[in-house]
Amino acid sequence: MIVYLAGRIFQAALTIAVMSFLVFAGVFMLGDPVAVLISPEASQDDIARLRQDLGLDLPFHQQYLRFVSAALGGDLGVSFAYGVSAIDLVLERFPATFELAATGMLLAVLLGAPLGLYAGLRHGTIGSQAIMALSTVGFSIPIFWVALMMIFVFAIGLGWLPPSGRGETRMLFGAEFSVLTADGWRYLALPALTLAIFKVSLVIRLTYAGTRE
Fold this sequence. Notes:
With 213 residues, the chain is mainly α. It is 72% helix and 3% strand. The chain has eight helices and two strands. The protein has helices at 2-30, 34-37, 44-54, 60-72, 86-121, 126-140, 143-157, 182-212; strands spanning 170-172, 175-177. A two-stranded antiparallel sheet has the order 1-2. A hairpin with a 2-residue loop joins strand 1 (170-172) and strand 2. The longest helix has 36 residues, at 86-121.
């Protein structure tokens, strides 16, 4: 078990390292961010000073090592758009992300497990075939297209649910959560359902396979 856990941890660390390098290299090749951050009327001295302050005058490998060293210390830099610490922005938005992911997963289990169990126990029936066909559709449809259609139908067309925002929130453990208010659930329902569609399909197939086995 210890060897297995150590191997999984090593694989996770290697994946993070590779992905961080690829993302950093991709951003590096997109162009000079100074051209976006500074005024077009800025002098060459101002541009050079900003590049030096941001460390953009260093070679690629030095920039990457500098980024990794800072990230391991919990410093993700400063947001160009908001001018504040990036880690503060991440922590500020984490409660909303967490409750959305948790709600989507909960809906997927509550919907997918019974459907997968029924499909597995009633294998070969019309109901079982219909459920498995719907799970295939859920896998096949791009999630961004589903999100657009959900907004178009339930927010714009029917006007039942708001298209964006968090609604009324309540504080819990020093963070704001929408799941603690009825108005917050109205705002959370649409993105949670959209996020749950793919996961429902996955849970159906896993439960179906386990039941058949």
